[in-house]
Amino acid sequence: MKKLALLLGLIATALALSVMLGPQGSLASSHREAPAISQDPAADTTDVYFFRSPDAPDTVSIITNWYPGQTGYSGPNFYRFADDVLYEIHIDSDGDTLDDFTYQFTFRTQFGAPGNPFGNRTFLYNTGPITSLNDTDFNVPQTMTVNRLVWNMVGNRRYATPTLLARDLKLPPVNVGKNSLPNYDAVADQAIYGVPGGGKVFAGQRDDPFFVDLGAVFDLLQVQNPGKDALEESNILTIALQVPIASIRTGDKVIGVWASSSRQTMSIFDDYGLGQGDADMAAADKIDGKGLRSAYRQVSRLGMPLVNEAVIGLRDKDRFNASQPNNDGQFLSWVTNSHLAELLNLLYNVGAPTTNRQDLVTVFLTGVPGLNQPTNVRPAEMLRLNVETPVTAIGGGSRLGVLGGDTGGFPNGRRLSDDVVDIALQVVGGALLGNPNSAGLGDGVNANDKPFRTTFPYLASPWSGNP
Q1: 204, 188 Cβ separation under 8 angstroms
Q2: Continuous segment of H or E residues that includes residue 265
Q3: Fewer CB near the terminus (10 Å): N or C of the chain?
Q4: Does residue 451 lie in a domain region?
Q5: Residue 10 to residue 16: CA distance in whole angstroms
Q6: DSSP states of 449-460 as a string?
Q7: Higher pLDDT among residues 307 and 2, named by residue
Q8: How far apart are CA 56 and CA 243, in angstroms?
Q9: Helix (H) or strand (E) holding 93
Q10: What is the C-alpha separation between 354 and 374, in angstroms, rounded?
Q11: Is the pLDDT of residue 40 over 90?
């Protein structure tokens, strides 16, 4: 009976993935997923990954990516984090859809490095080879401040107690080219910093780890093999955080994670006190790491891949990006039916179920019973990971995750090598219902264009602008 219950749970899990491919029929992870954020790439949260760290098993790693579609050759003004955006990683340790811990990241750019004889009179990003983070030839340096908030209830209000973890951490340059950065990896590795209390943090440019045939997918849902990875030789901006499991686990073995970005609207001097209600914070006060209270408007949000792109309809996409997980009930109607199944049936005569997927709603919004569902769960969209899941080596396990019989993969967290596109296509086509027409559905792109690192921050080095 236990084996049967586990099998049914895994089947329900994989079926739940089909919910993620609804009204818009798109399969790209969160790259330009909503009308407003498509015009604001520096604040666009593109992907979140959440897994136990293979090189430090008592920790978890949370990889968040921003600013999609970067080419290596992007001078004279290369990509950087926005100075007026608050980037956040939210952690729910008890299943109530509210963050119990929040890590905040803010950035500051200097135009004209101290000691550079040209200063801001030059148009060049660097005025010579960069051999270290302190090199005066690096003429547009950027620094990062990191705060950790711990949330508590006082009466009927939630308050955050902040801790400044780090200030003025130097970021690596982008990978300009072989002349500017003769040893890029050596310079970038200097930007891996220890975090007080254990763990590590890194922010900077990396190879985009997501892989998908965007051209075929957006050309009337063409599924083909082989496919072409549209993100081949594409870079991204990454914030990678590694923290001890004990520092974010408050009892439950299942922990939820999502990321957000918020644009600054105003700043006033104040103390670090911060109050937050349960309603959506369209313009909430958030700490910016500089001893200020700053009014921010949330403009992007991402936990599970494919949700805003493929579940939420056009009229609600911007609303979803501004909302909080505890209010996800307002989007329930988008989850109950799968428009992608309709399209697959229309285009390929797959014969997939399309309507009234109440079973999928439960699994998708709560996690899988016995795998990654919190004990006192409240339904909401986020990545959920059972932190007692055995560690998987980088690149190991089945690329199809739970659908491939690997409970250490997506949707139990998300590893870098999990093929969320193929998982979704095959499941929405009815693979677990015994539908033979779903076999082999996929975009023909099964892996990233570069091998991942085996150590933190795991993502491959960014593509050079002049290799």
Answers
A1: yes
A2: strand 254-269
A3: N
A4: no
A5: 10
A6: SSPPPSSTT-SP
A7: 307
A8: 10
A9: none
A10: 28
A11: no
75 CB-contact burial (10 Å; exposed 0-12 / middle 13-18 / buried 19+): middle
Has residue 11 been placed in a domain? Answer: yes
Number of domains observed in the structure of the chain: 1
- Nearest-angstrom CA–CA distance, 43 and 296: 12
CB 193 within 8 A of CB 447: no
> How far apart, in whole angstroms, are the C-alpha atoms of residue 420 and residue 452?
17
Residue 119's SS3 state is helix
Alpha helices in 148-239 (DSSP H): 184-189, 214-217
Report the distance separating Cα 248 and Cα 225, nearest Å: 42
Distance CA 418, CA 421 (A): 9
Establish if 334 belongs to a structural domain.
yes
The amino acid at residue 237 is L
Helices (H), 52-207: 184-189
Q: What is the mean pLDDT of the chain?
A: 82
Q: Strand, helix or coil at 236?
A: strand
**What is the arithmetic mean of pLDDT over 101-111?**
96
The answer to whether residue 212 sits within a structural domain is: yes
Distance of alpha carbon 325 from its chain centroid, rounded?
15
C-alpha–C-alpha distance, residues 467 and 28, integer Å: 28
Tokens of 246: 């004990």
| Global pTM value | 0.86
DSSP state of 433: G
Q: Domain of 196?
A: 2-438
